[in-house]
Design a protein that fits this description.
With 125 residues, the chain is α+β, with helices and mostly antiparallel strands. It has one domain: hypothetical protein PF0899 fold (2-Layer Sandwich). It is built from five helices and six strands; from the N terminus they run αβαβββαααββ.
Length: 125
């Protein structure tokens, strides 16, 4: 149900802008366990209730990591062994530190560079 809370936060952010927002791109990081269908439904419902008109585009941003030991940039596919590990990370992104390791040097000391959380790109008047 956190999709509804996220949708409410997006609408509140759009409404509280000083300039009029006419288009918003909502970017989901693939590390987050966000159900796009539920989020989209919630967002449309809230926008209708608020009588707020804005064009919404939803995109996904793949997770990217940087090894702090050797500097290798890698993705979720390279850093995990199987689908079960990927699924565990999607349900609880903090588990990335347990399951992922650098495909080059095998270190577990890395930084999440992209693909976590939700962000907005706005076009304003």
């Amino acid at each position: 149900m956190h999709e509804w809370a996220l949708a409410e936060s997006v609408v509140k952010t759009l409404k509280n802008r000083k300039k009029t927002v006419f288009e918003a791109e909502v970017i989901f990081g693939t590390l987050q366990d966000i159900d796009e269908e539920i989020f989209t439904f919630a967002l449309k419902e809230i926008l209708n209730q608020e009588d707020f008109k804005v064009k919404i585009k939803i995109t996904k941003e793949d997770a990217v990591f940087e090894c702090l030991s050797c500097g290798k940039i890698f993705d979720l596919k390279e850093g995990t062994k199987d689908e079960i590990e990927k699924e565990n990370i999607h349900f609880l992104p903090e588990m990335a530190k347990v399951f992922l390791k650098c495909p080059s040097c095998k270190a577990k000391d890395f930084e999440i560079k992209k693909g976590r959380g939700l962000s907005l790109k706005l076009k304003e008047k």
